[in-house]
Amino acid sequence: AKMEGRGTCRSFEPGMDARLQERRLLEAELALAVAQDQFVLHYQPLHDAKTSKLTGFEALVRWNHPRLGLLPPGEFIQLAEETGVIEGLGEWIMRQACADAASWPQPVKIAVNLSPAQFKQQGLPLQVASALATSNLLPSRLELEITESVLLAHNEHTIQTLHGLRDLGVSIAMDDFGTGYSSLSYLRSFPFDRIKIDRSFVSLMCESSESRAIVKAVAELGSTLGMTTTAEGVETQDQYLLVRENGCTDVQGWLFGRPMPASQLHVLFEQHAAL
Ligand code: C2E
Ligand code: CA
Ligand code: CA
Ligand code: CA
């Protein structure tokens, strides 16, 4: 195709333009979407591995886009980070999640994802403190999930911010564990409360003895370091039995429930009325 020269090049331009235009349009729409109240939080149940009891929910954001319908975070979170929209969006997510969780039965906890870009803000602990105070949610009911990429820069400010957050009485989880380049060294940089073992390990457990060995080793490591371990992406009964057998303390995945709107959670609370 290269040898056809400029003509070929030109024929690609409309496509490129269209993609660029679509991105610019999405960017412009994203900048207004918080103010226009277009985001919604869905909640995915978290369960105790041993008893299989409901222990909490993870908040997962969706964009109710006027043209494109309900968009998953994979389609806009990165753009929100690149454009700075994540600051306002992250604050909205924190306030909404705390407000929703405050109406749930007492022991049910809420987990909220923090993006690396939110750690560049100066007042993150203050923002979380304010969301807790406004919603009247006990700090012990809030867990913040961060990925290894937050610690990539690994500077003093990040670690200080993590301590500032933990001083509020919230817990901190290391998300997607095992997918980065130096997962183990990150465990040394901050005393996390929880390790969430990435779905990629869990989904291979039935057929791969290596994956089983890794999950077992991470669960043991967590236990030694005083951290709980959540197996992510548990889709089948076999996977559930395996992660439990190999020492994971908590489970999350389609087997237990998909992310759902806040209005549907009361059904689960009734099922777990014994709480
Ligand atoms: P994550 O934090 O690892 O969240 C778990 C993702 O796995 C969710 O995708 C969830 O729907 C999906 N999942 C859960 N159980 C299963 C399962 O059994 N099988 C399969 N195949 N998938 C499962 P989702 O909602 O599309 O979110 C994707 C990512 O977007 C999240 O990954 C997180 O990194 C980011 N994200 C979501 N919500 C937020 C948010 O409020 N703030 C920030 N900063 N990031 C968010
Ligand atoms: Ca997460
Ligand atoms: Ca995860
Ligand atoms: Ca993930």
What is the secondary structure topology, with strand pairs?
Layout: H1 6-33, E1 39-48, E2 54-65, E3 69-71, H2 77-83, H3 85-101, E4 109-113, H4 124-135, E5 142-146, H5 148-152, H6 156-167, E6 171-177, H7 183-189, E7 194-197, H8 199-202, H9 209-224, E8 228-231, H10 237-245, E9 250-252, E10 260-261, H11 265-271
Parallel strand pairs: 2-4, 4-5, 5-6, 6-7, 7-8, 8-9
Antiparallel strand pairs: 1-2, 1-9, 1-10, 2-3
The protein binds ligand C2E and calcium ion (3 copies).
Could you describe the 3D structure shown?
With 275 residues, the protein is of the alpha/beta class. It has 11 helices and 10 strands. The protein has an 8-stranded mixed barrel, surrounded by 4 helices. Helix 2 (77-83) crosses helix 3 (85-101), helix 3 (85-101) packs parallel to helix 4 and helix 4 runs parallel beside helix 6 (156-167). It is globular. Residues 1-5 have low confidence and may be disordered. Bound molecules: ligand C2E and calcium ion (3 copies). One calcium ion (CA) binds at residues 58, 113, 145, 175. Residues 23-273 form the EAL domain.
